[in-house]
Amino acid sequence: MSGVEGGPNYSVEVEGLRVQFGDFIAVKDISFNVNAGEIFGFLGANGAGKTTTIRVLCGLLEPNLGDVRVMGLNPKQGLDAIKSRVGYMSQRFTLYDDLTVDENLSFAASLRKLTREKFSRRKKDLLEFIGFERPLNTLVKNLPGGLKQQVSLCAATLHDPDIVFLDEPTAGVTPTYRARFWSLIRSMAASGKTVFVTTHYMDEAEQCDRIALMRDGSLIALDSPGGLKRSTFPEPIYEISSSREKLDEFWFESIKKRPEILKIQPHGLRYHAQLSKGVVEGQLRELVSSGCVVRVIPPSLEDVFIRLVEGGLP
Amino acid sequence: MNLKRVLSIAQKEVYHIVRDPFTLAMALGLPLILVTIFGLAIEFNMKEIGISVYDGDKSVASRSLLRAFSSSDYFHLNHTDRLPEAISILDHEQSKAALLIEPGFEKNLGSEKTAQAQILIDGADNSTVGVILGYLSGVQNQFGRNVGQTLSGSTAPFRTRYLFNPELNSRWFTVPGLIVIVVAILSILLTALTIAREWENGSMELLLSTPVRPIEIVIGKLLPYSLLGVGSVVFVYGLARVAFGVPFVGSHWFYGLSVLLFISAYLAQGLLISVVTRNQQLSMQLALISGLLPSVLLSGFVFPIENMPRFFHYLTSIFPAKWFMIISRSLFLKGSEPHELIKPFVALVVLNVVLMGVATKLFKKDVEP
Question: Is any Cβ of chain B less than 8 angstroms from the Cβ of A81?
Answer without folding.
Answer: no
